[in-house]
Amino acid sequence: MRCAVCKKKAEVYLPHHNLALCREDFIRFFHKRIKKAVDDFKMFSEEDKLLVAVSGGKDSLSLWDSLLKMGYNADGLFIHLGIGDFSKRAFEIVKEFSENRKAELIIINIKDEFGGKTLPELVETTKGVPCKVCGKIKRYFFDRIALKENYDVLLTGHNLDDEAAFLLGNIFNWNIEYLAKQSPALPEEDGFKKKAKPLIYLTEREIAIYSFFNNIKYNELSCPFSKKAKSHLYKESLHQMELSLKGLRIKFYKGFLRNRKLFEKAEKNYTLKPCKICGYPTSSEICGVCKIKIKAEVSEGEK
Ligand code: AMP
Ligand code: FES
Ligand code: ZN
């Protein structure tokens, strides 16, 4: 097969675009897909100070790599969760990535914030669901750091497969409030900085190819808590359907983006006010993370 752009030997074939590309043109295609998402949803501009939440996985590292190559002013934020070898490896990889590119990296260690406790220990003491506790803590630090360090936009590496699976789950459960909030870009409001997901037009496979072509080392270990997550089931079902219905996933997701307004009425049937302890916007008196701290019997003084 020949590259559709330069006619050199193609190295990849992208079925849902019916497109064969050589390595260089694939990398250009990848950056263009990011730029398209950025423009379609007015995510940010060249002047903005960006903070990329990097997990050590291929999605967020490919995003950070792309933004740096595209000339954006993008720093990284890594949350060290203390989940055994998984977090250790992630930390090594993210640190090496930032050092190689001389890019700024902010590191938050859960142990420093919760009186020496790691995420598994917090889950144990609070009797919480691991991914829920983890998600709450991660979102909290994404928001707090973006605000405190005065970044314009906080970016995550959610891709098309993630967003389509999340959408399917929200529809199966008729979770209208989540559907209303599921957006590629959320504006700055209520003490939160703007948030965006520039990889929404790229699939997991395309990101894997990008990381391979660019020699991006990423964490091959998966989180020991994530095995039973329902989102994997939704993702897998969509993969299966995509095999016979090419382009189904992007059509499904783009259709939702066009019709998002239908759900907007459901948005915000609650008001946010500052947490009495830390000031983070919350719908109750005390925010979820401060509640975790209290449950885990971590006093502010222990920090
Ligand atoms: P996940 O919820 O694990 O699917 O991750 C979704 C996105 O959140 C990733 O693409 C990253 O942008 C970000 N993220 C996940 N884990 C971390 C972490 N430990 N530190 C910083 N960012 C993270
Ligand atoms: Fe959060 Fe696995 S990364 S529970
Ligand atoms: Zn709080």
Task: Please tell me about this protein's structure.
It is a single chain. Helix content is 47%, strand content 12%. It is of the alpha/beta class. A hairpin with a 4-residue loop joins strand 1 and strand 2 (19-21). Bound molecules: adenosine monophosphate (AMP), FE2/S2 (inorganic) cluster (FES) and zinc ion. The site of adenosine monophosphate has 13 residues, from helix 2 and strand 4.
Topology:
Layout (H helix, E strand, L loop, with lengths): L11 E3 L4 E3 L1 H18 L8 E5 L4 H12 L3 E8 L3 H18 L3 E5 H4 L5 H8 L3 H19 L4 E3 L4 H13 L3 H6 L3 E2 L7 E3 L7 H10 L16 H15 L3 H12 L13 E2 L6 E2 L5 H8 L8
Parallel strand pairs: 3-4, 3-6, 4-5, 6-8
Antiparallel strand pairs: 1-2, 7-8, 9-10
Helix pairs in contact: 1-9, 2-9, 7-10, 7-11
Bound molecules: adenosine monophosphate, FE2/S2 (inorganic) cluster and zinc ion.
The site of FE2/S2 (inorganic) cluster (FES) has 6 residues, from helix 6.
List keywords for this structure.
globular; binds adenosine monophosphate; binds FE2/S2 (inorganic) cluster; Rossmann fold; two-stranded antiparallel ribbon; binds zinc ion; disordered C terminus; alpha/beta; 47% helix; 10 strands; 12 helices; 303 residues; six-stranded mixed beta sheet
Quick structural summary:
This protein has 303 residues and is of the alpha/beta class.
The rounded Rg comes to 20 Å
Number of separate domains: 1
Oligomer: single chain
Task: Identify the CATH architecture.
Answer: 3-Layer(aba) Sandwich
The main sheet comes to: 6 strands, mixed
Shape: globular
Mean pLDDT over the full residue set: 93
